[in-house]
Design a protein that fits this description.
By secondary structure, this protein is of the alpha+beta class. The chain is built from four helices and 18 strands. The longest helix is centred in the first third of the chain and has 37 residues.
Length: 368
């Protein structure tokens, strides 16, 4: 359609032609009511389409005088076109709302950067038990990580506000405890999924229902990967393909700090991974570093301190190599308001090229 504000565009616009033949008030009301029955927060494309087509069929079935049938048919066709436009609008609005709510859970209040293109609907439901239905709703991710929203049909017994469950929440009251039930694998080859992911599952509340956020982080790329999500309750399997491509940035470090030599850092949209090695003269099974990542510095000089890491350290993996050295990977999230000490310090995904330096064990390490 032409830009209606274009001064060089004259004559009858396509919009004028369309609106000249809009359906009657009754037909428009029927179409509107059929669409209004399904809100963007809980919608089904098939149900909307079937409902709308049913309304159109009802309209076409009304007996009208023969002389008016052609006009009637034309009006129904126009109504069908309008319905298609409306359905597309509803679908787009639904995706925006889902995307916004998922982003909010991760603290992304503004720009999601490249992760915006990595959001997609999944929409697979399965029956786990007689009274438990699990729906894998949607996902957002980057080159090595993925956040997957899972909805249950259970209402929380104790009313809480939407969002992560409060610290004083009594988890014994959860109507379905799926905390350790999920596992994720990627990369289907010869009928086998070859890349396991470290999986963390966190419950939250949405509209009074019990939901779970699954964070899966892998050593290899999950771009365009085949995904297998398994649930131990009901032995359920959910399969889909990640339909996005995200990049990452690698910077060689070769810096010895504490007991480890940090060889490189890999930055993706939502995580930072430090690769480290040490000789076996240190305790062989001492998996955690004594010099955690403390802050990142942006190109404009802004210093963003990370929240204190609880427990033994960051997410870590690795083992002993053939050369006798211990190799480790320390994974840190870079999510707004989840990672950084000051709650309002950042509300958007940080572009990788904006990270100028990191501080490890009190030592600033430039990334440029």
């Amino acid at each position: 359609m032409k830009n209606l504000k274009d001064d060089n565009y004259t004559g009858q616009t396509e919009a004028a032609v369309l609106f000249k033949n809009l359906p009657t008030d009754r037909e428009a009301d029927e179409l509107e009511s059929s669409l209004a029955e399904y809100t963007p927060g809980d919608y089904s494309g098939q149900r909307i389409t079937e409902r709308t087509i049913s309304k159109l069929h009802d309209a076409m079935a009304v007996k009208v005088p023969k002389s008016n049938r052609r006009r009637r048919f034309q009006m129904v066709l126009i109504a069908a076109c309008v319905a298609v436009l409306l359905i597309g609008t509803v679908f787009a609005a639904a995706e925006i709302i889902h995307n916004r709510r998922l982003n909010d859970m991760l603290g992304i209040k503004e720009d999601a950067g490249e992760m915006e293109n990595a959001f997609f609907e999944i929409g697979i439901s399965k029956q786990a038990t007689d009274d438990l239905t699990i729906t894998v709703v949607d996902s957002i991710g980057d080159s090595r990580s993925q956040w997957i929203e899972v909805k249950t049909n259970k209402k929380l017994e104790v009313p809480v506000e939407d969002g992560w469950l409060p610290k004083n929440f009594d988890y014994k009251t959860l109507p379905a405890n799926l905390g350790g039930a999920f596992s994720v694998k990627y990369s289907l080859e010869n009928g086998e999924y070859t890349t396991p992911a470290q999986t963390f599952t966190i419950p939250f509340c949405r509209d009074g229902d019990l939901w779970y956020m699954i964070w899966a982080t892998a050593d290899d790329s999950v771009n365009n990967a085949d995904v297998l999500l398994k649930c131990g309750i009901g032995d359920l399997e959910f399969r889909w393909k990640n339909n996005y491509e995200a990049d990452e940035k690698t910077v060689v470090l070769d810096r010895t700090i504490g007991k480890y030599t940090y060889t490189k850092v890999v930055l993706s949209a939502s995580r930072l991974v430090l690769y480290a090695e040490k000789d076996t003269e240190y305790p062989k099974y001492d998996y955690y570093n004594d010099a955690n990542l403390e802050s990142i510095t942006l190109a404009d000089g802004t210093l963003l301190p990370l929240k204190e890491i609880r427990g033994d350290g960051p997410v870590s993996s690795g083992g002993e190599g053939d050369d006798g050295k211990i190799y480790r990977e320390f994974v840190y999230l870079l999510l707004p308001n989840h990672t950084f000490e000051t709650p309002d310090s950042i509300t958007s995904i940080i572009p990788k090229d904006d990270i100028a330096a990191i501080t490890i064990g009190g030592i600033a390490v430039p990334l440029r």
